Each structure stands twice: as C-alpha cells, then as structure tokens.
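I am sending you the entry underneath: sequence plus fold tokens. Let me know what the token row says about the fold:
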Amino acid sequence: MLPTLLSLSLTQCSEAEKETKDAKDQKTSEEAKKAVELFDHKTLKGWKTVNPNFAKYWSVVDGVITVSNGKEKMPTNTYLATEKDYEDFEFTCKFRLTGDHATGFINSGVQYRSNIHTAEGKAPKIVGYQADLGKGYWGNIYDEHRRGHLVKANLTEVLKQGFKEEAWGTYKIVCQGDHHQVYINGLLVADYTEKDAKMPKKGVIALQLHSGGVAKMEYKDIFVKEL
C-alpha cells in the first residue's frame, strides 16, 4: 500500500500547488485590471513632453497638471505623454479649459494609441487618435497628423445636464480592439469603430494644449485601467 499512498500524496501536493498558482495568477490578473493613477499630484514623473523644447509650458500647480503660456498667446501645440504605451484601456480624468476666445483658438485634447515620430533635423511629432476638447469640438474623435476628423460627438444629453465650458468636467476614453468610445461627464458622446487594420492599436496617452489664443488647460485625477 505504501507506493499507492505515496503516489496519492504526490498527486494531492501537485494539485494543491496548481490551485495555489492559479489563485496567484488570478490575483495578478485582477490587480492588472485595477485603475492606476498616472499623476502623483506633485511632479510630472511618468510623463514626458513630446518636444522637450516645450517643457516650459507644463507645470504642477496646486496638485493639478497645468499647461499655459501665461498671459501670452499659445505659440505652438504641445503634448505631455505617458512613458508607457497602452493598448486596450479605460482612461479617465478631470479637465478644465479656460481662455479668451477673442485672442484666438482655444482648444485641447487627449491623445491615445499615439506614437511619437522623430526624424533627424525635424521636431518630434505625435501621430494618433485624439479625443478633442474645446468649443465646437468637445468629444470629437480626431486623427492627429494622419487622417484628420473621424467622428463628431453628440452633445445633446451633456448639454441638457447644463455643461459649462470653463467648469471642471470629466473625460473617459474606452478603447478595446477596434472600438473607441468617449464620455463627457459620464455620458457617451462619441462611438467609433476603426475599419483600417493598418492603424496601430497601441501607443502613448498624451495631454495637449493647442496653439492659438491665451489659454490654460488643467488636468487632475488621471487614471488608466488596462482591459
């Protein structure tokens, strides 16, 4: 009977080890799907300006990522990108865009699945999807430096809620496979399915302020959950 008991004991140990490993793998998978905060409220650690020459426009003010040229017009588009690439994800943040429309174009946005292109003798350029922010463009999906406008947002329900342009709002971008969705203040405003299989499905997330008038863009409570 001894060999049989020994075999049974080894089988039970193997099964127990497998159950323990499966439990650890499940825990790791669940932890990976938890939302991770991308901003420590103090520094820009984990982020990089796409063009280092424009780092001067970005700062942390009162625990908020802030981009502005002070009282002067914004002379160029500028982007602050994550150091990590993301493929399928749910991104959320709070935003506030303020500015004087009489001085020029006031616009911002959040790049996603975007790639930074560099070439000798040329300034770095970010290419990819953008969830737009700004008067006339709220919630639109745009393809920056590639195909241009993709989807115009439907703001009907958001406006019914009393959306105010210069107040704090919430933004959510959900990207899974070829399906893209944009939410403002918890309401779906844009839904897009990519049909071009050649479009990259992975890239950085980047915050933006567009060139134009005297403007300031603020971002806080920035989270991403990988799906």
